[in-house]
């Protein structure tokens, strides 16, 4: 019985998230109300508040569902050597993730959306991924595989470079197809690493 309840709860929460995402593809977050979301999800307003404390909590859940689903890919790489092949694999994985989740990434990268979730939460995401990149670089420096004088700087620079390029493509500000960009992004990271 508990399994059925949790499955039903999972589906209900999923319906609310899906309804919110659909609405956020058409309107910015400040123009989407909780009433709009519950109406689209076909659930009661009280049901919304069983799963989310507020619209901000819902927004943060959208970020977690999307961005954090990529964590395992990056965490796997930390234990691998820093080679051209592994860097290419990681960038290819990032681009595949972006292609698969383009609509979600468009929602997350909308200016009003980022203004809505607080800066502390937004910074947390950035620092988490920079920290993972830094751990990968640190491990490889410690093993003597590469010589990088300032892994914190390199990790931040690589993260921001990849993020900015892909963000501009996703938002349509760069006339480049994500699939075509893969080779160029890999080459940029190779150059950053001095290869």
Automatic annotation (TrEMBL):
<protein>
    <submittedName>
        <fullName>DNA-binding transcriptional regulator, AcrR family</fullName>
    </submittedName>
</protein>
<dbReference type="Pfam" id="PF00440">
    <property type="entry name" value="TetR_N"/>
</dbReference>
<dbReference type="InterPro" id="IPR009057">
    <property type="entry name" value="Homeodomain-like_sf"/>
</dbReference>
<feature type="DNA-binding region" description="H-T-H motif">
    <location>
        <begin position="33"/>
        <end position="52"/>
    </location>
</feature>
<dbReference type="InterPro" id="IPR050624">
    <property type="entry name" value="HTH-type_Tx_Regulator"/>
</dbReference>
<dbReference type="GO" id="GO:0003677">
    <property type="term" value="F:DNA binding"/>
</dbReference>
<feature type="domain" description="HTH tetR-type">
    <location>
        <begin position="10"/>
        <end position="70"/>
    </location>
</feature>
<keyword id="KW-0678">Repressor</keyword>
<dbReference type="InterPro" id="IPR001647">
    <property type="entry name" value="HTH_TetR"/>
</dbReference>
<keyword id="KW-0238">DNA-binding</keyword>
């Amino acid at each position: 019985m508990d399994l059925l309840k949790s499955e039903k709860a999972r589906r209900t929460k999923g319906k609310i998230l899906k309804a919110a995402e659909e609405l956020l593809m058409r309107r910015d977050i400040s123009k989407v109300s909780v009433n709009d979301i519950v109406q689209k999800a076909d659930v009661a307003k009280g049901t919304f508040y069983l799963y989310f404390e507020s619209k901000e909590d819902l927004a943060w859940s959208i970020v977690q569902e999307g961005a954090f689903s990529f964590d395992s890919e990056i965490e796997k790489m930390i234990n691998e050597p820093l080679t051209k092949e592994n860097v290419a694999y990681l960038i290819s994985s990032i681009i595949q993730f972006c292609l698969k989740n383009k609509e979600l990434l468009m929602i997350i990268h909308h200016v009003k959306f980022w203004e809505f979730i607080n800066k502390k939460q937004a910074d947390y995401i950035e620092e988490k991924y920079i920290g993972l990149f830094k751990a990968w670089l640190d491990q490889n420096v410690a093993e003597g595989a590469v010589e990088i004088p300032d892994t914190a700087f390199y990790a931040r620079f690589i993260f921001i470079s990849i993020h900015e390029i892909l963000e501009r493509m996703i938002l349509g500000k760069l006339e480049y197809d994500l699939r075509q960009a893969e080779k160029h992004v890999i080459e940029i990271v190779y150059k950053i690493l001095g290869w």
